[in-house]
Design brief:
With 470 residues, the protein is of the alpha/beta class. The chain is 32% helix and 19% strand. It is built from 16 helices and 18 strands. The strands form 4 sheets. It has a 7-stranded mixed beta sheet. Strand 16 and strand 17 (346-348) form a beta hairpin. Helix 1 crosses helix 13 (380-399) and helix 15 (426-442) packs across helix 16 (455-464).
Length: 470
C-alpha cells in the first residue's frame, strides 16, 4: 500500500502573481501533489482586480491568436483547484512575512512590467517614454493615465524585439482597423486623434540579429494604408540563404521583399532602420530628435561603432529595450539583473550568488518562477519549463520535510476582511468578464469585449457578482 507522505498532506501554498507564470505554477503544483498522493490548497494573489497579467495588459489588442492562451489559463483557474484573490498587493495589503507564516510555501511570480533603463543623455526629456507604459495604456491598464499624447507626427521606437514592433504597429495603425478588437474606448479615442505620420524603428544590430518572430513581422506588413520602408544601406548584405535558422530565413525574405515593394502613397509610413545605436535624445524643452552612431557587424554576432553619427528628427521617443523585474517588498531582489536571486527556483538571500555554494542561502519555503526568476526573456514555453523546475524542487522539499508548517491558522480572507481590503475572486472575474463581453456585443462597433478600465469600476463589478447596467 502506498502511504501519503505526511509532508504532502494538506499542503498550503501561496502564489504571488496571476499571470501565465503564476497560473502555470499553480496548475503544475496541483497535478504534481495529486500524483504523489498528497493534497494542496493554492491561493493565487494578484495586485490587479483581474487575472492573466501581461496576457491581458501586455499584448496588443489586435493579437487574437496570442490572446487565445487566455482560454487555457481560464480553464486552469476554472477547474477550482486554485483560489484567485485579486486586487491584493503583497507588501501593501498583506506582508510577505504574513503569507510565509500562513502557508507551507510561497512562490513569487510577479513577472516584469517596468521598462529597462536606456542610459543616454536626454532620455528623460518630455516626449520620451517607456514602451511598457505605452503598452499598458493601449491595453487599458487601470493604473496608467486615461489619455496619451499622440501629437507628434514623427516618432522613434528604439528596440528590435516584439514589443518594439507592437508599439510601432499600434502607433502606425489606423484606428478604424482596431475597432473590432477589445480596445478600450478611451484608447480608441486617443488613437483617432493621433497626428502620427512616420514611425521609425531602430535596431543597434543588423537584420540578421533581430529578436522579432515571423508572425509579428508578417503582421506588420499587413497593416492597411501603411507603407513599410526598409533602406538598402540599413539592410546591408543580409542573405536569407545564410540565416541561422528557418525562422530568421523567413523574416529576412519578408524584409527583403519590402525593399522592392512599391510605395502606395499611404498616409502613414513605418521605417525599419538597422545598425543604429542611440547615443543621445536631442532637445531643449522636449524631444526634437535622436542622435545615432552607425554600427557595423564584427562577424561574431556583435557590432562596433563606426564613428559616423547622424541625427534624425522626431518629436517622440519610445524605448523598447526590454523589461525589468517587479520586486516584492520583503523579498530579496537583484537590482542589477532585475530578478529575485534564486537557484533553480529556490530563492536565496544573496543577490550576487550564482549558486547556493557561492554564498547564497536558500530561504525556507520561498520560491520563484517566470520572468522574475530568469529575467524577461523567452516565451510561454519557457514559462512552463520554469514552473516545472520550481515545482519539482518545492515538492521535493516538502517530501524531505524541509518546509515549515504554517505558524498561523485560519483563512487569509478573514485577515483581508478585517483590513477592509476589497479583494476580488474568481466568481467576481467571471462577472467582470461577462460584463465586458456584453459591452462588446452592444457596442456600436461590435467587439468580443470592451475592457472596463478604471480599477474602482472593475472592483465594483467583480464584488457585486452580477452584471451592472451599461
Amino acid at each position: 500500500m502506498t502511504h501519503t507522505p505526511s509532508s504532502l498532506a494538506n499542503l498550503r501554498v501561496a502564489i504571488i502573481g496571476a499571470g501565465p507564470a503564476g497560473i502555470y505554477a499553480g496548475n503544475i503544483l496541483s497535478g504534481s501533489v495529486a500524483e504523489a498522493g498528497g493534497s494542496v490548497a493554492i491561493d493565487l494573489f494578484e495586485s490587479l482586480p483581474a487575472p492573466y497579467g501581461l496576457i491581458r495588459y501586455g499584448v496588443a489588442p489586435d493579437h487574437p491568436r496570442i490572446k487565445g492562451i487566455v482560454t487555457s489559463l481560464h480553464e486552469m483557474l476554472d477547474a477550482g483547484s486554485i483560489r484567485f484573490i485579486g486586487n491584493v498587493e503583497v507588501g501593501r495589503d498583506i506582508a510577505l512575512d504574513e503569507l510565509r507564516e500562513r502557508y507551507d510555501a510561497v512562490i513569487i511570480a510577479t513577472g516584469a512590467i517596468r521598462d529597462a533603463v536606456l542610459d543616454i543623455p536626454g532620455i528623460d526629456l518630455p516626449g520620451s517614454y517607456g514602451a511598457a507604459d505605452f503598452v499598458a495604456w493601449f491595453d487599458g491598464h487601470p493604473d496608467v493615465p486615461r489619455e496619451w499624447p499622440l501629437d507628434a507626427p514623427e516618432v522613434a521606437v528604439i528596440g528590435n524585439g516584439n514589443v518594439a514592433l507592437d508599439v510601432a504597429r499600434m502607433l502606425a495603425k489606423h484606428p478604424e482597423d482596431l475597432r473590432s478588437t477589445e480596445i478600450a474606448d478611451n484608447v480608441l479615442g486617443g488613437l483617432e486623434a493621433s497626428n502620427v505620420t512616420d514611425v521609425h524603428v531602430f535596431g543597434r544590430r543588423g537584420p540578421a540579429d533581430i529578436k522579432f518572430t515571423p508572425i509579428e513581422l508578417r503582421e506588420l506588413g499587413e497593416v492597411p494604408n501603411v507603407d513599410i520602408i526598409v533602406h538598402d544601406e540599413d539592410f546591408g548584405d543580409a542573405d536569407p540563404a545564410d540565416a541561422k535558422n528557418n525562422q530568421l530565413k523567413v523574416m529576412l525574405r519578408v524584409m527583403n521583399s519590402w525593399r522592392t515593394r512599391e510605395r502606395t502613397g499611404a498616409s502613414r509610413r513605418l521605417h525599419l532602420h538597422f545598425y543604429h545605436s542611440p547615443v543621445e535624445v536631442i532637445g531643449a524643452d522636449r524631444v526634437e530628435g535622436v542622435r545615432f552612431e552607425r554600427t557595423a557587424p564584427t562577424g561574431d554576432g556583435s557590432v562596433i561603432g563606426t564613428g559616423e553619427y547622424r541625427e534624425i528628427a522626431v518629436q517622440q521617443v519610445y524605448r523598447a529595450v526590454g523589461y525589468f523585474g517587479t520586486p516584492v517588498l520583503g523579498a530579496p531582489f537583484d537590482e542589477v539583473r532585475g530578478v529575485v536571486p534564486n537557484v533553480e527556483g529556490r530563492v536565496t538571500d544573496t543577490a550576487s550568488a550564482a549558486t547556493a555554494e557561492d554564498g547564497g542561502t536558500a530561504l525556507q519555503g520561498l520560491y520563484a518562477t517566470g520572468w522574475i526568476k530568469r529575467g524577461p526573456v523567452g516565451l510561454i514555453g519557457h514559462t512552463k519549463s520554469d514552473a516545472m523546475e520550481t515545482i519539482a524542487h518545492l515538492v521535493s522539499d516538502a517530501q524531505s520535510g524541509l518546509l515549515a508548517a504554517p505558524a498561523v491558522a485560519g483563512d487569509v480572507l478573514d485577515l483581508l476582511g478585517e483590513r477592509d481590503v476589497a479583494y476580488t475572486t474568481w466568481d467576481g472575474w467571471r462577472a467582470l468578464d461577462a460584463h465586458e463581453r456584453e459591452l462588446g456585443a452592444t457596442h456600436r462597433h461590435t467587439r468580443e469585449r470592451v475592457k472596463v478600465v478604471p480599477r474602482d469600476e472593475q472592483v465594483a463589478i467583480s464584488r457585486s457578482g452580477a452584471l451592472i447596467e451599461s
